[in-house]
Structures are given as C-alpha cells and as structure tokens.
Protein 1
Amino acid sequence: MLSHDAPLLSGDALRERFLALDTFLLAQQSLWREKPFIQQKLNWEAEYPELAVWLRARSLADAEACHANPYALSAPQPFADWAQRAQQLSTLGSFPDTLLSQRPLRMQSGIAERKWQQIEAFASAVHSGAGQSLAATNNWLDWCAGKGHLGRYLAWPNAHLECLEFNSELINSGQAISHKYLAHAQHRLCDVMSAESAAPLQQAGAVIALHACGDLHTHLLRQVNAQQAAAVALAPCCYNRTQSEFYQPLSAQGQASALRLNRDDLGLPLTATVTATNRERRLRDQSMAWRLAFDILQRELRGVDEYLPTPSLSAAWFNKSFAQWCADLAKLKGLPSVPVQNWIDLQARGWQRLAEVRNLELLRALFRRPLELWLVLDQAIFLHEQGFRVELGEFCASELTPRNLLLLACRV
Ligand SMILES: C[S@@+](CC[C@H](N)C(=O)[O-])C[C@H]1O[C@@H](n2cnc3c(N)ncnc32)[C@H](O)[C@@H]1O
C-alpha cells in the first residue's frame, strides 16, 4: 500500500528522521543483529522469555502469513511497542501520480509486467514535485541501465538518452530497441566504477538509476557531487553488494553515527521475499530446512557447538535423497563420514528448526525498513549537504518491488 497521507521527506525532516532512526537502531541492536538461522539460542531470549517461547511455538505457516507485515503480529510485549515504533519511523509519503502521455504499446514488449509498472511509477514520480525540474531535461543518463527500458521511457519521444552498462549483450539488444523509438540514444559499454563515467555525468541533464546495487549507487552519489551533475533520481537496491567490509556513510551525520553496519547487516532490508513464486518459496524452504538439519548433524560430528557456513548449492543437489545430500555436504566440508542416522527424525528436526527460525526472524523483520531508511537517508542528507534540493519517498507499492524508495535530487 502506498501512503499519500504521510509527507515526502525533505529539508530538515531528513535529518530529524535520520536521528530518530539512529537512536532506535542503536538502542535495539541486540535484537536485530542476532541471527536465528546460525544461533540456536539468541541472547535476547533470556531477557524476554515469554516472547521467545511464544514465537518458538508457532508453525512455519504462521510465520509465512505475517512475513510481509510483521508489525501486525499480536505477540507478547514488548513486541508491539517495538513494532509500533519501527512502523512510525518507517512511515513515508509516496510521490503523487502524474499523468504522462501514453507510450507506444509495443514499447512494453519483452518487459515483464511488474518491471513495466515499476518503470511507469518511477517516471510518474520523476515528473512530480521537485522532480519536475529534473524531468524538464532533454538529456537523460541511465546508470547501470540494463537494456535501458527506464531511460527510453523517459526520453521518449524526442530527448537524448545515454545508457551506461557493462554487459555487452544488454547493450546490443538495448541499442536495437532504442533505434525503434528514439532518434538520439547511445548505449555505451562502460564500467560505471571507472573514470569513464565522469564525462557522461557532467554532460547529463538528469541521471536516473533504477535498482543500482550497493557500491554502484553509493559511487553514483559521490560522483554526482564530484562531477557536478545537475540532478539524480535513484531507487537503490542490494545494499550489501559492496567491496568494503563496513558501510561507509556519505553524509556528515552518517559519519557521526555510532552505528557500524557490516555486510550482513546491510542484507537485512533485503530479507523480505514478497516477489517470490510458490515454487521458489518451496525450494527455499527445503534448502533451509535441510541446512538446519545439517547444522544439528555437523555440531554432533565435529563436537563443536557452532554454526558452520555451507556454500550455495545448485538445484541438482536437491534431487538427491536427504541422507545422500548430508553425506555429500559433509564430504564437501571435509567432515568425518556421517554415521547411520534416523534420517526421518533428523529431517523433521530441520523443519522444526525452520519454523522456529522463521518466527524468531519476525522480530528482526521489524527492523528491515528502519535500517533501509537509515541508509537511504544518509544518502539523501549527503546530497542535501552538497546543495541539492532532495525529496525522499516511495515510488510504487511494495508488492511491485520491496525496493521502492526513490531519492530525487536537483542542484539548487
Ligand atoms: C539490477 S540491474 C538493473 C538494470 C536496470 N536499471 C533495470 O532496472 O532494469 C543492475 C544492472 O547493473 C549492471 N552493472 C553491474 N555492475 C556494473 C558496472 N560496474 N558498470 C556498469 N553496469 C553495471 C548490470 O549488468 C545490470 O544490468
């Protein structure tokens, strides 16, 4: 659901919200840093036993039912207090709808419906409010463009478009599509992390980036400043795809925070799976239940009561019997050979652990959006500090994509 009642964040509200989130996340870090998947017992359980017992008693289906909206869970206190605060701090307005002229129907061909709707919503937001001056450009730069669908949508019918992308197949097919709709479109092979992206940033009237991952979007924002780019519209994603071990805050306020976020922490906002299909969910559940069962087994085999990371495994691995899968994984990890087990019982314990893990994770889930907003606010404040007029809000419903935050910034 999009909220048209709450305001977009801009000006001083950016800093105020950041500070409130910073205080909340720091105060509650013992809750959201704990990982039920790798820790059999969580430290906060001793402090909140009633909540822990209640969560552990629920089924996998119970957990699934409120995965997307953990705030609504009527769990023992202080869960509801935390949920209310997290929700309050995550509330954000959405960009008003703008009626844009209809693009040619064929332009949508080959684009998944959900992606097309994201593009429409992004373009609509870019044309609203502060974005209007950004949208007036005749010169768009699509950063990490893929096939450049978003850039083409915005540049149609007469504007110039430059797309930067480092996958040559995407460039070739993007260029072929652009030829059909635009007179001035250039899809360029370019590693945006290299110095080659500097000149396009200087020349562009507006830079757009839909779902540029981790370093690709933080680098963009630093470069928007360094190259004196005029305006940017960014919907960030995959905050954990970064070379550095810890998040490097961009804004002075972010740098002053005591919050240190490692790559694992940066993955927390991405743990919502609203867009997975039923088949994907079933496979994911099986993989996790088996890994949790293996975790019980490996602790016994090694005589060490500690989680042992396992690598990602191809789908073919899950065509094996559970017993064979355990034996092969033990071999892969260099463990002693697995003695005969009651495999049915071990597998059932894995599924039981999965139900507990998923329910305990509902507590972490309360912090997904606050943490994401903290990150994007750091980026918004950075641009504000550099003299941009900034607006932050949601550009589409989370059902369309959970990465629905949009940062619009125009140099004043
Ligand atoms: C998540 S996709 C988003 C694509 C497009 N903006 C969209 O929304 O459909 C990220 C894109 O970034 C590209 N990419 C990744 N690293 C890059 C780099 N260093 N330089 C240029 N493009 C890169 C990938 O090939 C991919 O097409």
Protein 2
Amino acid sequence: MDDYERFKRNILARTGIDLFMYKEEQMKRRLTSLKNKYQAATFDEFFRMMESDPEIMKACLDRMTINVSEFFRNRQRWHVLEDDILPALLSGRSGRFKVWSAACSSGEEAYSLAIVLSRHLPAGGYDILATDLDEKVLAAAERGVYGETSLKELTEAERSRYFYKEADGFRIKPEYRAPIRFKKHNLLADPFESGFDLIVCRNVLIYFTDEAKAALYHKFSNALRPGGVLFVGSTEQIFNPGEYGLESIATFFYRKAVTTGDGHASVPDRPARSSSSGQRVPTV
Ligand SMILES: C[S@@+](CC[C@H](N)C(=O)[O-])C[C@H]1O[C@@H](n2cnc3c(N)ncnc32)[C@H](O)[C@@H]1O
C-alpha cells in the first residue's frame, strides 16, 4: 500500500471522512500542497504531525472540505426554483413543506431557501434541515452573519429586507433562522432522513467519485417523497436520472417518479415553462 493510500485509511479511521470516495487527483493535489507547507516528507509523517498538533489537523480538515458558498448561488437557477418548480410542488399540497439543504456549508443556501419559502408559505408552514460534515462552517451558519462576498447576488433592497446591518457584517433576521435546523451529517456515512419535498445538494457532488455519486443519487431519491424534487449544482447534471427513479424537469432539477397503484412509475405534470430563462431583476 502506498503512502497516500495509508493516509486515506488513517484519515477515515480518525475523522470518518472517506477520501476513497472523493475524486483522487484534485484531493491529492490539495493535500500534497498542505503537506509540503508543513514540510512533511511523506503522508505518513504528515499524519503523525496531525496527530500531535490539533492546529495541523484543523488545517487538514479545512483543506478537505471546500466551503465556498454564497446567497442565491447561480441566481438564475433560483428564479427557476421560485417561478416554476415551487408553485408546482406546492399546488394542491397540505402539511408542512419539508426541505433539506445537504452540504450547506456556512448556511447561505439554507437561508436563501428560507427567504424564498417565506414568499410562498406562511410562517411555520415549512421546515429546513441544513447539514454539513464540517462543524466549523455549521457554527458560522448558526451565527448567520455574512460579509460582502456571500451577499454579492443581493440588491441593497434585499439586504435591508432580510438582514440587520451590524459592525461585522449582515445578520440574517430571526424569521429566516427560525425554520432551519442545522445538524452535522456526513453524506457518505450517516443515515438520511426521509419524506422531503425538496432536496438541495449543490456543489459537493462534483468532489465525489462516480460510484459515490451513484450511491448518493439512490439515497436522495429514497429520501424524497414521490413527486419531490432534487436540485443540484450547475456543473452536476445527472445523465441517467431514470436509473434512480428520477426524471429531469428543468436543467439541474430532478423529480422523483410517483408510483401508480399497478406498480408503474407515472410522470407528474411538468411545471410551466420558465418565464425567467434570461437575466432578470431580482424580486424583493
Ligand atoms: C462548496 S461547499 C457547497 C455549499 C453550498 N451547497 C453551495 O452550493 O453554495 C461544499 C460543502 O460540502 C461539505 N462536504 C464535503 N464532504 C461532505 C460530506 N461527505 N458530507 C457532508 N458535507 C460534505 C463541505 O464541508 C462544504 O461545506
């Protein structure tokens, strides 16, 4: 077994992070540059350094989890969610609307969902589970204070409508915090909750191997209620959605088939075509 293989095993045993399921080339490059920064000659030596120095362990965890996020990332997709997907999901539906922001990083995605849902449902009409592997980003998410980079998609009007301006940034208003439950969760190891109307999992699947992705698509499909929708990132198209009981309803949106009484999968009506395929002024 080579040096890096041993390192992956050690990391799995020590942290529960399974680097065997992340694309090798990119991850190895990121970790090699960190190993070199600490002047470790081998990954074995690097792991020993991490074991004796929590700061190095922390730096390594940071390097493995890529935490970049922002409010309404790829805004045009959020317009499709709000204008087309959500009305179809909500039509004729009763009960609490259940959403999961999987790999939510520092919370921008979960709060974007809370903002969108507040425009369509009464307070208390929806729950958002927001999970990530990394406790550090979850603590930032719980705090809910953001700088310019996270808010670059938002207009001045939106900033003052959804945030309080404070000395160290913009604090999300409590009504958008209330429906969210932040929780530590490893997509590659922990059990999934179920019965979701909408699962948003964006900009993390790209880091996983094809095998890990396929296993996750099955698990997301099982976690959706029939007719529920999976919203993925803008480089994360699923090429064979039917294999997972999903069908593409718009670019980067996949709906779980509804099984009919005779055991056949039926395809629910498509949502109306987007009227917002071009750039448009954000709604406040
Ligand atoms: C690039 S961020 C994406 C954040 C947000 N979804 C977005 O699109 O802006 C990727 C996140 O995936 C998380 N992550 C990586 N591996 C994970 C795993 N196995 N389980 C859960 N979260 C994971 C990282 O900690 C990081 O916060």
